Automatic annotation (TrEMBL):
SUPFAM superfamilies: alpha/beta-Hydrolases (SSF53474). InterPro entries: AB_hydrolase_fold, Peptidase_S10, Ser_caboxypep_ser_AS. Belongs to the peptidase S10 family. The keyword Nucleotide-binding does not apply. This is Carboxypeptidase. It is an enzyme of class 3 (hydrolase). It comes from Somion occarium. It comes from the Eukaryota. Residues 1-26 form the signal peptide. Keywords: Apoptosis, Carboxypeptidase, Glycoprotein, Golgi apparatus, Hydrolase, Membrane, Protease, Signal, Transmembrane, Transmembrane helix. It catalyses: Preferential release of a C-terminal arginine or lysine residue. It is a single-pass type I membrane protein.
Length: 454
């Protein structure tokens, strides 16, 4: 999920067809590099399966919709992407654009820990992972907003609001299709996790209104942050349901008090917009689970907010998880890797989650994506799925925010490999959603093969 909890002290460890289409739409940039220039001829220290080789493209594309009006000397936004072509043919060809959360967290998380084709091997290199989503779908992992991961822009031009991020994404797409025109006719999907619960409805709405001429078919959100009004209260509800807090105990009363005050705060904010977060509400989760902070053999520990079965060092409380992050940082810091992935133009070294982007992208004037969803769902379906051991974007809150749209009253058993009691909402027409039992937040990290079934 969002590694940003480090930066704001809580949920920002996540942690209308508005005005992004007003005015003129940016045309594709002239003189773009050829597709061949983006080809990654080898992935350093990855032993590939010769019978199913990976075909990878990566690099930067101009993404500033206002670049034409800016001086040639100004550094304009360039979003970074990694494209992994599908290894097998399904019933038809598909392409999915993937986003990680934060805001400000790199989609290399998705590529290297969640739904991608390789993992770090613990020895400085990579190993092929089975069941990556590229098995049957061409995957494009995008570092956005500008400044995230290997993407770059001027440090005084970081984005602040979701409509702005949508405009930059659409500009990226126009240039992407100019370089790779063969993908413009493929069935197109969006996917992501955590704060992508905000990005994806906005981006979907932008695609539907941008006259791109692509067959946009739908989206998938895993453990997403979609609706503050219903997801903040879910921390206490989830904690009671999973035996983390006993109802009517002193711990429960403290959690109930901060939850009630959070809801009052949301009502105050809701006079002008439907808020994505509030400063007061960001303390709710920590209050609910603070009684699990303890000393073990002289070391202060706390509950892992991404997998409640685990503990972590305080105050990280999940930020050290999964353990792959350290090796990924080392791998992507190597200059031979940077060159191989055509990331030399990035102004700074790769960082999983960049605090400056997180702070800048405050979304204080953006309506929550829950206000966008109904109009999007009139045109394309969207799937929400979750691992049930995650607390910070837990399945209880996701069920609560989807029910006002679907009024889903019944879930049915769904066999997901050998996992018990996986569930899907009975109403699968517009907004299918379900939860995977015994899966942590990074359910794509642990359940990649089953993600393909989803």
């Amino acid at each position: 999920m969002l590694q940003s909890a480090l930066y704001t002290g809580f949920l920002w460890a996540l942690l209308p067809s508005l005005f992004f289409l007003s005015g003129s739409e940016a045309a594709p940039t002239d003189n773009l590099p050829s597709a061949a220039s983006f080809y990654v001829s080898h992935v350093p220290d990855l032993q590939q399966d010769s019978s199913r080789p990976l075909h990878v493209y990566a690099g930067h594309l101009p993404s500033d919709p206002d670049a034409a009006s800016k001086p040639a000397t100004e550094v304009t936004a360039h979003l970074y992407f990694v494209l992994v072509k599908n290894r097998r043919l399904a019933d038809k060809e598909r392409i999915l654009f993937w986003f990680n959360g934060g805001p400000g967290c790199s989609s290399f998380d998705g590529l290297m820990m969640e739904v991608g084709p390789w993992r770090v091997d613990g020895k400085g290199g990579l190993r092929v992972a089975e069941g990556g989503w590229e098995e049957y779908t061409t995957m494009v992992y995008i570092d956005q907003p500008p400044g995230t991961g290997f993407s770059y822009t001027s440090t005084d031009k970081y984005l602040h609001e979701l409509p702005d991020a949508s405009r930059y994404f659409i500009t990226f797409l126009r240039n992407f299709y100019q370089v790779f025109p063969e993908y413009k006719t493929m069935d197109t999907y969006l996917g992501g996790e955590s704060y992508a619960g905000q990005y994806i409805p906005y981006f979907a709405d932008a695609i539907l209104n941008a006259n791109l001429g692509v067959p946009f078919r739908g989206a998938a959100i895993g453990n997403g942050w979609i609706d503050a009004r219903r997801q903040y209260p879910s921390f206490l509800e989830y904690a009671v349901k999973h035996g983390i807090v006993t109802e009517n105990s002193d711990d429960w009363k403290r959690g109930k008090d901060i939850t009630d005050r959070c809801m009052e705060d949301i009502e105050k904010e809701a006079g002008s917009i439907e808020p994505i977060h509030t400063d007061l509400c960001e303390s709710v989760m920590n209050v609910v689970i603070e009684h699990h902070t303890k000393q073990i053999n002289g070391t202060k520990t706390c509950m892992n907010m991404y997998d409640v079965r685990l503990n972590d060092l305080h105050p990280a409380c999940g930020m050290n998880w999964p353990p792959d992050v350290r090796d990924i940082n080392t791998y992507l810091g190597r200059q031979d890797v940077v060159r191989a992935f055509h990331a030399q133009d990035a102004s700074t070294a790769w960082d999983e989650c960049r605090p400056a982007i997180h702070r800048a992208f405050s979304t204080r004037r953006s309506n929550s994506s829950i206000t966008i969803l109904p109009s999007v769902l009139e045109k394309v379906p969207m799937m929400v799925f979750a691992g049930d051991q995650d607390l910070i974007c837990n399945y209880v809150g996701l069920e609560n925010c989807s029910n006002p749209i679907l009024d889903c009253q019944q879930y049915r058993r769904w066999n997901l490999g050998n996992l018990p009691k996986s569930h899907l909402c009975q109403d699968l027409q517009r907004f299918p959603h379900g939860w995977i039992r015994r899966a942590p937040y990074k359910s794509r990290h642990d359940l990649t093969v089953h993600g393909c079934e989803l």
